[in-house]
């Protein structure tokens, strides 16, 4: 199974409401977290942060340890590839108005419950819900 790395961007909106940012897939248009292949010379967490910048125009503090993982079937020119995606939490500190893939994807902040329901993967939805519960319980970080 192939390995990818992804970022789960989060923030506290309106003083107390946790939100996560999702992006659309370039081809599918489905809501997903920013993700991509490992990058030479970068840790998986740093590669996930780079993907979040390229796909969503965001930056912040990324957790070095993954929150968890989920499986995804990635379509390619050669068929379908099974991929495990390690998910790293990204506390968003900056949103850009211009970024590399701005014209190719949409980005949107979702309340946690809605985000968990709009992603295709049940496992990813569970990771999102788990982060939301931690944030609602007054933790200063999503870990």
In short:
By secondary structure, the chain is α+β, with helices and mostly antiparallel strands. 24% of the residues lie in helices and 42% in strands.
What topology emerges from the helices and strands here?
Elements: E1 2-13, E2 17-24, E3 31-32, E4 35-36, H1 44-56, E5 58-62, E6 68-76, E7 79-95, E8 107-111, H2 112-118, H3 122-136
Parallel strand pairs: 1-7
Antiparallel strand pairs: 1-2, 1-4, 2-3, 2-8, 5-7, 6-7
Output the keywords:
24% helix; single chain; 8 strands; Nucleoside Triphosphate Pyrophosphohydrolase; eight-stranded mixed sheet; globular; alpha+beta; 143 residues
Describe the structure.
Its cofactor is Mg(2+). Pfam families: NUDIX. With 143 residues, the protein is α+β, with helices and mostly antiparallel strands. Helices cover 24% and strands 42% of the residues. It has one domain (2-136): Nucleoside Triphosphate Pyrophosphohydrolase (Alpha-Beta Complex). The chain has helices at residues 44-56, 112-118, 122-136, and strands at 2-13, 17-24, 31-32, 35-36, 58-62, 68-76, 79-95, 107-111. The longest helix is centred in the C-terminal third of the chain and has 15 residues, at 122-136. It is globular, with a radius of gyration of 14 Å.
């Amino acid at each position: 199974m192939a390995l990818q790395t992804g970022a789960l961007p989060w923030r506290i909106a309106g003083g107390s409401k946790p939100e996560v940012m999702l992006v659309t897939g370039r081809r599918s248009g489905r809501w997903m977290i920013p993700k991509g292949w490992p990058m030479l010379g970068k840790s998986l967490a740093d590669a996930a942060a780079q993907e979040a910048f390229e796909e969503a125009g965001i930056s912040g503090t990324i957790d070095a340890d993954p929150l968890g993982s989920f499986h995804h079937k990635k379509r390619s020119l050669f068929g379908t590839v099974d991929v495990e995606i390690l998910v790293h939490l990204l506390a968003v500190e900056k949103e850009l108005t211009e970024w590399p893939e701005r014209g190719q994807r949409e980005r949107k902040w979702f309340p946690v419950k809605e985000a968990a329901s709009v992603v295709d993967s049940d496992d990813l939805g569970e990771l999102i819900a788990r982060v939301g519960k931690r944030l609602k319980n007054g933790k200063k970080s999503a870990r």
